[in-house]
Every structure is written in structure tokens, then in C-alpha cells.
Amino acid sequence: AEPKLTLGVRNARIGQFVARARAGESYAGKLVYLQRRVGNRWRIVTRARLGANGAVRFRGAVPRGKHRLRITTPPSPGYLRGFSTVVTVRG
Q: 7 CB contacts (<8 Å, ≥6 apart)?
């Protein structure tokens, strides 16, 4: 099943974020990637590993200015690729 991913911004200026994954199966221990839109491509900023509750707080170095961010999970056996909604931040 495809997970429902949520990206929360705690503090965009210093790059603090929260990622959550909800699905029928546990996503504990899975990697999530923070991506930033650069031109017409998505570039990986950083990665984080989800905790036992399917959530993680992490830091990502995002340059100053206005950016579009999302998180994604890679596909793996028994799991589908997932994407969060796009969040616009000003740092």
C-alpha cells in the first residue's frame, strides 16, 4: 500500500522539519528523503529514518529564500513509493 506522508515545518529558517508516514503496515525504520524543487527537477536535500511511531524530527540545510519541499519514500519489497504534498517555505 502507498503510505500517506506528511511534511511538517517546525522552523524553516534553521531547517527543522517533521516527517510522518501512515499506512496499513508499519513504516518504522524506513527512510524518507527531503526533496527541494530546483528548476524542473526534485533534488534530495537530506534523508532521515522513521522511528517506531512512523515519525521523525530532522534537520535539512535549505538555502535562504522561497523553496518548494516534499518528502518521499523509496519503493522496497512490500512497500510502494510515496510522496507528501508540496510545502512552500521561506527561509
A: 17, 18, 19, 34, 69, 70, 71, 84, 85, 87
Cβ atoms within 10 Å, residue 34: 24
Question: What pLDDT, in 10s, does the model give residues 15-53?
Answer: 999 999 999 888 999 999 999 999 999 999 999 999 999
CA distances from 50 to 26, 31, 86 (A): 10, 6, 19
Task: Write down the pTM of the prediction.
Answer: 0.92
Place 76 in a pLDDT band, splitting at 50, 70 and 90.
confident
In angstroms, the CA 62 to CA 4 distance is: 24
Hey, what's the cell of 91?
527561509
Q: How many CB atoms lie within 10 A of CB 40?
A: 5
